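Figure 2 data, in text form.
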Amino acid sequence: MYSCKKDNDDEPQDSPAGYWKGFYGNGTNPATQNYSWLFRENGTLRVYSQSADTTAGSKAEGTYSVNGSTIKTSYTYISGAISGSFSTTASTPDDFETMSGTYGSGSATTGGGTFILTRQ
């Protein structure tokens, strides 16, 4: 008798861990700038901005926390054209498949613009 484990991509996620892609916008501008995040299982993340090619854009390192359907991040750019530290707050109403939120400079989670990301 043989059995194999069936992968079920329809199971709800309970963590943002993984790679997410989307766009951000500055201020009230629409979200059209490339933005991607790599959430690691250990509570850290890598942020890529301004290029669909993750080797060409600005890169940041930071941390995240999850409380229900709210994800908060804090990160600092380590390379590329963007510098400084930023924080975000986002909601993921559909079991960690999409998220939308706002960002700001330093510890502020608003005042910088908006973003939307989709799990890849």
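Caption note: The chain has one domain: 18-119.
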